[in-house]
Design a protein that fits this description.
heterodimer; A: alpha/beta; D-Maltodextrin-Binding Protein, domain 2; 4-stranded mixed β-sheet; 16 helices; 12 strands; globular; B: mainly alpha; 2 domains; 73% helix; ABC transporter substrate-binding protein (chain A); maltose binding (chain A); signal (chain A); transport (chain A)
Chain lengths: 425, 305
């Protein structure tokens, strides 16, 4: 009888006390991947946190790794005003969407040390003047080049094109490979070419400027590399990251644009024919632009319906500490979001790309347009870019159409620049 | 008089009992068919963007339908669906009929051949789509290798980046997979035709061609129409094959309406607009089914015999 009463009391407490467990600890749920070295590392780090904060218990919520599936799951939970999970692991392009929807808490009240992070990673997590997520680790686009074919990386896009052509006449099958299939990856590649020609997708005021002359030159350059110089194979228009890596790994390409994940795989001499014969550099630029790298990576945010915001922030604060980031770099090779760590000798042992080089590339990183409707804008752009690159539409006409569609979308959802309505509360 | 009363009473009792028996079935149909349909229609009259909760869920009458009518991507998707449907259904009917005629002949090992023909149909669509994707890969695909070997092409052709060429693997894959199904339906029809009719035709001096035109085709009409109705409605809702094979690309030049609806509903989470597209697909397929049943006078029960 007494036992039953105890159970009843516990149940009552779970119902009434919300986010607490039977021992009175605050329960924080954390969505995480289910398998692999990353899941193990996270488990260890969370356990150490619980030693430091015995009043908090963290429960992991296993979620899919595929970005689209994870996003869909989050949207379902958050629409239902679920308080669980308390912490959200966000892709860099989701923060403004979730912030504008009121699904995640502004973090400024917790006074996070934003000046210690790469500015671009912080900028990507701001919406309407407030910070909504803390950058956890960073991903950037970079140029892989063959050290056995060239003495140094190309200093300009023109040099890249010439070097690629030369390597082809010397017998390398492809000059340059990048991700040209119609998906988010195509936008990241375009963004790097766009920056290289001095263009932007959206300007600082949120105006769509993807139909500028610079953008047309950037897209034309990409198309010419396929159809004029032949440096980029036509098949690249169906490739995502892995297909480009296979080609480069088999020694069939002189240059490749890709993310850092490829580096350790290419260095593995058992599988890679280019092990010890490649290096990375920033994507070069045309004279009128700047070398540009697309910013990716993971952020941590707090569910707006959480019952324990303070404890949730404590978890985020712990996971983004320098020591935890260094460990993350060492164990799973993810790049810290704090530039100061790139001077630490431990980092060189953890990261495959030499830290000073990685830091220089990350400093060039630009976020994709920071807007709640990024995914929809990106889709409109992907379709037009792919049409232009597959010869169905002229680059200028394609970009003008994309810009018109993007402006119409922003107008419709009340996010057009100059409007004070809706999400700009 | 009293007899009559009793009969009426018994009839109404029986009717009540009958209603009681069919009620669970009716309730199930209501719950799984009519209710979701009604909800989708209701949803389609609202703005409901999960990703933009600040827009609320206002009732907007037919605004979502009006948007579809002026949406170039919607009309493109309808056109692609029509191309796919006409292309695949025509080929499948012609090839399926040839296959059925061949399978209908008596020879040893016929059962084995009939089973073997069905193999493509038994392969899951996603697997089949991946197979065809590999076969039409520019570098490693067998399609290019064969075309180069027999001298039809000089260098590898990238099928999936051409707005028209990308249809080749899509249509071939569907024809390869679904022709056996059509053949099986037609074979059942062929076996219902009485041999004495052919005998009579032969006695009247009709050759094989005239027998085919005047005996086989008219008597096969119900089976052909059933195959046509199944395949048209299926083709109109094509999704997985194209999702895996081309993703709707290049650009959106092979995107069918089901893929665009999926994109609006589950990728952009625009429930209002996506529901409007679903309702349009429903109305068109319903109309097609009505057209077959009324205009072409298909009697589904007759063909099923």
């Amino acid at each position: 009888m007494q036992a039953r009463f105890g159970t009843l009391a516990a149940v009552a407490c779970i119902v009434a006390c919300g986010g607490g467990d039977e021992d009175g600890r605050q329960v924080i749920t954390f969505p995480a991947s289910a398998v692999g070295a990353e899941a193990e590392l996270l488990q260890e780090q969370l356990e150490r946190f619980m030693l430091e904060r015995p009043d908090v218990r963290i429960v992991r919520r296993e979620t899919p790794d595929a970005a689209d599936q994870r996003h869909q799951l989050y949207v379902q939970w958050l629409n239902a005003r679920a308080s669980d999970p308390d912490i959200l692991q966000l892709d860099v392009i989701w923060t403004p969407e979730f912030a504008a929807a009121g699904w995640i808490l502004p973090l400024d009240a917790f006074a996070p040390p934003v000046s210690e992070y790469f500015p671009a990673t912080v900028a990507a997590n701001r919406w309407d003047g407030a910070l909504y997520a803390l950058p956890w680790f960073v991903d950037v686009g970079m140029l892989y080049w063959r050290t056995d074919l060239f003495e140094r990386p190309p200093a300009s896009l023109e040099e890249l094109s010439r070097a690629a052509a030369r390597s082809r006449s010397d017998g390398t099958r492809y000059g340059m490979v990048w991700q040209g299939a119609r998906y988010e990856g195509l936008v990241t590649v375009f963004l790097e070419h766009l920056g290289a020609f001095g263009g932007q997708i959206m300007d600082a005021d949120g105006r769509v400027v993807v139909d500028s002359n610079a953008a047309v030159r950037a897209l034309r350059f990409m198309a010419d590399e396929i159809y004029e110089t032949g440096n980029v194979p036509r098949a690249a228009l169906t490739w995502q990251e892995e297909q480009t890596r296979f080609v480069f790994q088999n020694g069939q390409a002189a240059f490749m644009r890709n993310w850092p994940y490829a580096y350790p795989l290419l260095r593995d001499s058992a599988a890679s024919r280019v092990a010890g014969r490649f290096a990375v550099a920033p994507m070069p630029a045309a004279p009128e632009g700047e070398p540009t790298a697309t910013l990716g990576g993971s952020q941590l945010a707090i569910n707006a319906n959480t019952e324990n915001p303070e404890a949730a922030y404590a978890v985020i604060e712990y996971l983004t500490r320098p020591e935890q980031m260094l460990e993350r770099a060492r164990v799973v090779g993810q790049y810290p979001t704090r530039p100061a760590l790139y001077g630490r000798p431990e980092l060189a042992r953890g990261l495959s790309v030499p830290p000073d080089r990685a830091r220089r590339i990350i400093e060039r990183a630009v976020p994709r347009p920071v807007t709640p409707v990024y995914t929809q804008l990106s889709q409109l752009l992907q379709i037009r870019l792919h049409r232009a690159l597959t010869g169905q539409q002229e680059p200028r006409a394609a970009l003008e159409a994309a810009a018109a569609e993007m402006r119409a979308l922003l107008e419709k959802v009340g996010l057009a620049p100059g409007e004070s309505a809706g999400a700009r509360r | 008089m009293r007899d009559a009363d009793r009969t009426v009473g018994a009839e109404s009792r029986e009717a009540r009992l009958a209603w009681a028996f069919v009620l669970p079935a009716l309730a199930t149909i209501f719950l799984i068919a009519l209710f979701p349909l009604a909800w989708t229609v209701w949803e389609s009259l609202h703005v409901h963007d999960l990703r933009m909760p600040w827009r609320g869920q206002p009732f907007v009458w037919l605004a979502n339908y009006a948007e579809a009518m002026t949406d170039g991507r919607f009309w493109g998707a309808m056109l692609h669906t029509a191309i796919f449907t006409v292309g695949t259904v025509t080929l499948e009917l012609v090839l399926g009929l040839i296959l059925a005629l061949a399978l209908n002949r008596a020879y040893r090992g016929r059962g084995l051949v009939r089973a073997a023909v069905l193999v493509p149909w038994a392969i899951p669509t996603v697997v089949a789509a991946l197979l065809w994707r590999f076969m039409f890969d520019a570098q490693a695909g067998i399609a290019n290798a064969v075309l180069i070997d027999i001298g039809l092409m000089e260098r590898p052709f990238v099928w999936l980046i051409h707005a028209w060429a990308a249809w080749a693997p899509v249509i071939l894959a569907d024809v390869w997979k679904m022709t056996p199904f059509v053949a099986l339906l037609l074979l059942a029809g062929l076996q219902n035709i009485d041999d004495s009719l052919y005998e009579a035709a032969r006695i009247d001096g009709a050759g094989p061609w005239r027998q085919f035109i005047h005996v086989t085709l008219p008597l096969l009409k119900p089976a052909i129409l059933v195959a046509l109705i199944f395949r048209t409605l299926d083709a109109f809702r094509v999704f997985d094959l194209i999702y895996v094979l081309t993703g709707g690309g290049p650009g959106t030049s092979t995107e069918p309406i089901a893929l665009y609806t999926f994109n609006a509903l589950l990728q952009n989470l625009r429930f209002g607009y996506g529901s409007a597209l679903s309702v349009i697909v429903f109305v068109v397929t319903f109309g097609l089914a009505m057209f077959y049943i009324r205009v072409l006078d298909v009697d589904l029960t007759e063909a099923g015999e």
